[in-house]
Amino acid sequence: MDRRARLEKLRDLLTTEAENAEGPGLAALARELRAVLSELDALPAQQAKTPTDEIAKRRAARRRKAAGE
Questions:
Q1: If phi over 0 gives left and psi between -120 and 50 gives alpha, with beta otherwise, what is residue 57?
Q2: What is the pTM of this model?
Q3: Is 63 exposed, middle or buried (0-12, 13-18, 19+ CB in 10 A)?
Q4: pLDDT 10s digits, 7-59
């Protein structure tokens, strides 16, 4: 698994956990999620290769927008 794939998997995990968290736990998850999103943004652009990749890309963009970034 390459770096991008690991970061995307971590992003998805943090997003799922943040949806169910409250209080200080939510703040910590949000901080980590922001860091992972920043790392993903810093990686060289990758073109979507399959329809599934395109859907994941759009979902990530919606999540970033919903998170206020």
A1: alpha
A2: 0.63
A3: middle
A4: 999 999 999 999 989 999 999 999 999 999 999 999 988 765 688 878 888 89
Placement of tokens 């860091």 in the chain: 35
45: which 2 tokens? 């652009």
Mean pLDDT computed over 52-67: 86
Whether 4 contacts 46, CB under 8 Å:
yes
Q: Which DSSP category does 67 fall into?
A: T
The number of beta carbons lying within 10 Å of the beta carbon of residue 66 is 9
Number of domains in the chain: 1
Q: Is 48 left (phi over 0), alpha (psi -120 to 50) or beta?
A: beta
| Residues 6 or more apart whose Cβ sits within 8 Å of residue 7 | 36, 39, 40, 43
